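Exercise 7b. Backbone tokens:
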């Protein structure tokens, strides 16, 4: 029912001759059955009241010897055809042809010659074997049979055993054998051409079926085909991965996802009113967009269910949004920066004036001008960083050693003790698909937020980096957890909005978490805030699903943390 278990083991798309060989062997065995039936009929005719006197039988004992020999030969040939591996097919056909020529000639001579009519047994034998032989070999078989019968009649004529040989009847029989061979040869040629055409069509259909299954199974979007009752009969590998489940037989959509089951029945009720449905993500699977499409085949109806990871769609939307907004924000920031630079420079010159050096009130106003100018310059830098973002460099990187390097850098820069920043990754060999420089910028911002908003002495601050990869869905996450006071309920819906600053930290630009989220989405991931019942803040990074491409070397972390750092958080 599930293509993911098939297409990974697809054999090469090439035709097979197994079916043709099987048909040939069955035809040969069917001919063996005909031979035994013909011999049995001769026995019946011999022992009935009519007997074979009408066809000139004079030596009953000799005729019985010939029939018994033919019976034993026919039984042996049938046994041999039942064991096709002993003797190749072509050699077996030649053996059958030789046995029939000898035995039919013997039976015909013992039964009174060609005049007895027993020579006509050669006609169906030649016809049947000609259908199994290739090319002109069928004509050779007819010629050899005719020569054998003619030689038998010649011997009878020389010894005068039963009178003059019936050469005329033998000649007519030979012509009939030749015509039969020609007809069988033509029919066999037409049959082989038809069989070859049917085989090509069958091979093309089988290859197309395999190719379609391979395409479906290779799609990044999940595909589930269900009937009208909701029974899934096809689930590709991407669907299993997106749902975070092992492939297994299921009787309905409910064991896969209760939300997906409800969405399907809602779509059945109003198929035109339900375009797509969003399924929330969890530890096993990312956030999904579900689309339904009806299908009808030979009276049966059902639906195709498409599952898409919304992270990739958000990344594409984000790229389009930044492309349209980037030029505007960059130009505005540039226009603001020029007069701001003039104001800042004038303030510095004014601070050096002797007339203001002994006036505390004027010095305080100059300090306000310099601080607010610096703040505005920081906002401009963040806006320019957001609008002129360099393209991300995706690559598979081992998560645990990368976090160890990051943690050592962060603790050294902020003077933290080793137990204050803990790392836990399960499994230890987890790999994630992300730009390492942009991940460094995101984590630095989140960890710096934990220090700024801990509301406790610096030696008591604890930060945990907990992550890993789900073994089935290959969905990777990383949690940044602190022991601070968390985010107040009224701020949780706004912390990722631009230019929104925490009430107690109004000195920030309000772009830190916004840029962190934008960086996650541009890499195909997602950043969200989770509420912890035990207190503290938890920011979770959802990494995109890894591609099939092999990992490539990644650049080292930027040794200058200021180059990858953003300002403020919940800012």
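Sequence design result:
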């Amino acid at each position: 029912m599930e293509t993911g278990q098939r297409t990974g083991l697809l054999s090469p798309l090439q035709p097979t001759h197994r079916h043709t060989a099987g048909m040939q062997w069955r035809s040969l065995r069917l001919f063996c059955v005909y031979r035994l039936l013909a011999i049995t009929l001769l026995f019946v005719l011999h022992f009935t009241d009519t007997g074979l006197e009408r066809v000139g039988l004079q030596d009953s004992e000799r005729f019985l010897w010939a029939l018994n020999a033919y019976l034993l030969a026919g039984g042996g040939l049938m046994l041999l055809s039942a064991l096709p591996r002993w003797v190749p097919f072509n050699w077996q056909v030649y053996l059958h042809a030789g046995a029939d020529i000898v035995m039919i000639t013997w039976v015909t001579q013992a039964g009174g010659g060609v005049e007895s009519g027993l020579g006509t047994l050669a006609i169906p034998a030649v016809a049947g074997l000609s259908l199994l032989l290739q090319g002109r070999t069928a004509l050779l078989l007819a010629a050899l049979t005719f020569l054998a019968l003619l030689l038998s009649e010649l011997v009878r004529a020389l010894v005068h055993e039963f009178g003059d040989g019936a050469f005329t009847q033998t000649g007519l029989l030979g012509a009939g054998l030749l015509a039969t061979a020609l007809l069988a040869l033509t029919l066999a040629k037409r049959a082989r051409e038809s069989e070859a055409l049917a085989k090509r069509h069958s091979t093309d259909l089988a290859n197309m079926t395999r190719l379609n299954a391979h395409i479906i199974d290779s799609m990044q979007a999940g595909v589930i085909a269900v009937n009208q009752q909701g029974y899934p009969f096809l689930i590709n590998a991407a669907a299993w991965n997106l749902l975070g489940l092992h492939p297994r037989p299921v009787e309905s959509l409910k064991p896969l996802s209760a939300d997906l089951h409800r969405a399907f029945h809602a779509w059945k009720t109003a198929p035109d009113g339900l375009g797509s449905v969003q399924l929330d993500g969890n530890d096993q699977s990312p956030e999904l967009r579900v689309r339904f499409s009806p299908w009808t085949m030979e009276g049966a109806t059902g639906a195709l269910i498409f599952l898409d990871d919304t992270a990739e769609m958000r990344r594409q939307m984000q790229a389009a949004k930044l492309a349209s907004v980037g030029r505007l924000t960059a130009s505005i920031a540039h226009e603001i920066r020029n007069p701001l630079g003039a104001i800042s420079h004038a303030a510095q010159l004014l601070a050096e004036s002797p007339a203001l050096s002994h006036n505390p009130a004027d010095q305080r106003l100059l300090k306000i001008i310099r601080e607010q100018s610096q703040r505005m310059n920081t906002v401009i830098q963040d806006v320019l960083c957001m609008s002129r973002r360099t393209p991300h460099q995706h690559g598979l990187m081992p998560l645990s050693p990368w976090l160890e390097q990051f943690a050592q850098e962060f603790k050294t820069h902020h003077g933290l003790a080793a137990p204050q920043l803990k790392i836990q990754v399960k499994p230890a060999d987890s790999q994630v698909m992300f730009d390492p420089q942009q991940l460094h910028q995101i984590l630095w911002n989140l960890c710096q937020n934990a220090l700024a908003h801990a509301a406790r002495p610096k030696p008591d601050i604890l930060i945990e980096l907990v992550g890993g990869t789900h073994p089935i869905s290959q969905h990777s996450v990383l949690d940044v957890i602190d022991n601070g006071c968390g985010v107040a309920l009224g701020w949780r819906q706004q912390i990722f909005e631009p230019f929104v600053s925490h009430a107690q930290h109004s000195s920030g630009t309000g772009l830190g978490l916004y840029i962190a989220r934008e960086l996650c989405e541009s890499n195909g991931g997602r950043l969200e805030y989770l509420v912890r019942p035990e207190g503290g803040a938890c920011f979770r990074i959802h990494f995109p699903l890894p591609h099939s491409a092999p990992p490539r070397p990644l650049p080292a972390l930027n040794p200058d943390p200021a180059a990858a750092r953003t300002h403020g958080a919940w800012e």
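Instructor comment: Confidence is low (pLDDT under 50) at residues 1-17, 51-56, 548-571. Residues 167-218 form the longest helix (52 residues).
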